[in-house]
């Protein structure tokens, strides 16, 4: 039980409930107090929470107590973050997996819920809210998981009639990432998935403000299912975002048309390049330098026909290990496109890319030689079964590709080590960097090794890795037994001069207490500066963004 000091309650059960929560009743100030029951949490498997979290919806805003590392010397609040003005870290995560006796089978299909930690001069505030996508709203209204395109289907499965119904609605359960479009007062925040659909939300309240599939001049969408990417990138030196859309060829032999789009905001776009592939390739991310956008059109092929008949993306996707990866390099200034062929490799995330003084292009990626089998790692029955989960080891590792357009050649470096710990750290995933070094020569990548095996060098905990690309063997790691980190954010010190001068933030699941906390690490030393426990857990998710 928590003692709650309730202030400014505008409407219980409405969208604007504000509840100040004092974790320690002994220090709560005088005022109206109520007792809010915290749900008794069943046993969970270490590291992964794939359970409904709707019960927390009504606690819209909760003040967090911030702990200070003993002897830290940086005061009692939150260390270097005090020098950063009002800012907010938002994470997106699937948080509801069953409704009305129908369950989803893959974590990708859980309904999106956003969780934010707002950081101000007076402390931290935690909020969370389900995204009111049409998929979520229809399902809640019907009190049953409503027909929709899914990644891996539902149990019990949709009837043939429901599959037809699924095709009539947009695929808008945007539970992968969040992004800011535009600049200043005109900024729009949206939740993203690998489709051209945007679920906009208010940064302060997390309230959903609308879902749109914006038209693009010059692109004829064949349906409202338009493949795009949940990892846009900021065009260097601008506030524009870069992304792509795919218009699949439906007639045998017809090329797949990819359009690279410059997004000034969510209503203003321009096509800056167009390229073709023989088959419809699923690409979850891409690279960007000052002059080029780089795509790895790997042989993860999606059959539009199968997707329409099964309404499942996974059923429609197939890996062809004997086929090549086509590396597409498009000049974002001229639109010129060049194609290079290389071995099959499945790219999950691009860390960074930049051009060297001698005209080469460096592309750093997390990728797997085993194709799309990594996607089966996140089936919910597997995540909920401890013995299965313990078999779930990291499947991707860090690679560096050096592209020489002048000679039409590609060199690859796969990061491997005979030292078990060093090799483990090379398997970094969900990579993030100091964004001031985007598209520039850089040294540091922060991320998490998604390896659940207790026999790994960090005893099955999900650790935070700092990979040093400029000093081999100098990678660093933070981990704590039974604590499981998620994709970090790097917040640079506004007055800092070094690339790693700043703090690393991560939402960490404490499997003993079954709660998450905000972890603040020193970006240089990877030592803990501070923590702030949240009054609940945050379900297992993949991405988020730090907005300042
Ligand atoms: Fe991703």
Automatic annotation (TrEMBL):
What's noted on cofactor binding? Binds 1 Fe(2+) ion per subunit.
Gene Ontology molecular function terms on file: beta-carotene 15,15'-dioxygenase activity; carotenoid dioxygenase activity; metal ion binding
Against InterPro entries, the record matches this protein to: Carotenoid_Oase (IPR004294)
Q: Where do the annotations place Fe cation binding?
A: 231, 284, 349, 543
Q: Which GO terms describe its biological process?
A: carotene catabolic process; retinal metabolic process
Needed co-factor(s)? Fe(2+)
Sorted alphabetically, which keywords does the UniProt record give?
Iron, Metal-binding, Oxidoreductase
Regarding protein family, the annotation reads:
Belongs to the carotenoid oxygenase family.
Instruction: State what protein this is by name.
Output: BCO2 protein
State the organism of origin: Branchiostoma lanceolatum
């Amino acid at each position: 039980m928590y003692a709650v000091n309730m202030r400014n309650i505008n409407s219980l059960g409405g969208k604007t409930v504000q509840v100040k929560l004092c974790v320690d009743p002994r220090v709560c100030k005088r005022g109206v107090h109520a007792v809010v029951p915290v749900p008794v949490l069943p046993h969970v498997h270490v590291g992964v929470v794939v359970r409904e979290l709707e019960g927390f919806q009504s606690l819209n805003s909760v003040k967090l107590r911030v702990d200070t590392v003993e002897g830290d010397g940086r005061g009692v609040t939150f260390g270097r973050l005090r020098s950063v003005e009002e800012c907010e870290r938002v994470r997106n995560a699937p948080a509801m997996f069953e409704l009305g006796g129908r369950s989803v089978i893959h974590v990708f299909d859980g309904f999106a819920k956003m969780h934010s930690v707002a950081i101000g001069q007076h402390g931290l505030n935690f909020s969370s809210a389900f995204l009111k996508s049409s998929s979520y709203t229809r399902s809640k209204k019907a009190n049953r998981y409503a027909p929709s395109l899914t990644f891996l289907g539902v149990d019990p499965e949709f009837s043939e009639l429901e599959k037809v119904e699924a095709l009539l609605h947009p695929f808008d359960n945007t539970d992968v990432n969040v992004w800011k479009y535009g600049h200043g007062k005109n900024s729009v925040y949206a939740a993203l998935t690998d489709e051209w659909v945007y679920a906009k939300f208010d940064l302060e309240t997390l309230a959903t403000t609308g879902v749109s599939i914006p038209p693009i001049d010059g692109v004829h969408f064949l349906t409202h299912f338009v493949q795009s990417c949940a990892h846009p990138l900021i065009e260097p030196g601008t506030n524009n975002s870069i992304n792509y859309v795919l218009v699949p060829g439906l007639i045998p032999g017809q090329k797949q048309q990819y359009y690279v789009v410059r997004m000034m905001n969510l209503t203003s776009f321009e096509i800056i390049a167009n390229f073709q592939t023989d088959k419809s390739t699923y690409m979850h991310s891409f690279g960007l330098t000052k002059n080029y956008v780089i795509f790895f059109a790997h042989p993860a092929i999606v059959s539009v026909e199968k997707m329409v008949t099964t309404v499942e993306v996974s059923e429609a996707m197939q890996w062809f290990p004997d086929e090549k990866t086509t590396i597409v390099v498009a000049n974002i200034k001229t639109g010129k496109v060049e194609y290079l062929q290389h071995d099959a490799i499945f790219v999950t995330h691009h860390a960074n890319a930049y051009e060297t003084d001698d005209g080469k292009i460096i592309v750093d990626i997390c990728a797997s030689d085993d194709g799309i089998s990594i996607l089966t790692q996140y089936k919910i029955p597997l995540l909920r079964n401890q013995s299965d989960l313990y078999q779930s080891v990291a499947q991707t590792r860090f690679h560096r590709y050096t592209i020489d357009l002048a000679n039409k050649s590609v060199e690859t470096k796969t990061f491997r080590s005979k030292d078990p710990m060093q090799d483990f750290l090379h398997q970094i995933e969900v990579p993030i960097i100091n964004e001031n070094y985007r598209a520039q020569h850089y040294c540091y990548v922060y991320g998490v090794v998604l390896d659940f095996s207790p026999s790994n060098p960090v005893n099955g905990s999900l650790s935070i890795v700092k990979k040093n690309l400029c000093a081999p063997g100098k990678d660093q790691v933070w981990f704590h037994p039974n604590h499981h980190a998620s994709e970090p954010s790097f917040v640079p010190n506004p007055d800092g001069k070094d690339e790693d001068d700043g703090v690393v933030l991560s939402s960490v699941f404490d499997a003993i207490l079954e709660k998450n906390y905000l972890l603040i690490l020193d970006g240089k030393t990877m030592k803990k500066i501070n923590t702030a426990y949240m009054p609940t857990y945050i379900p297992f998710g993949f991405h988020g963004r730090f907005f300042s």
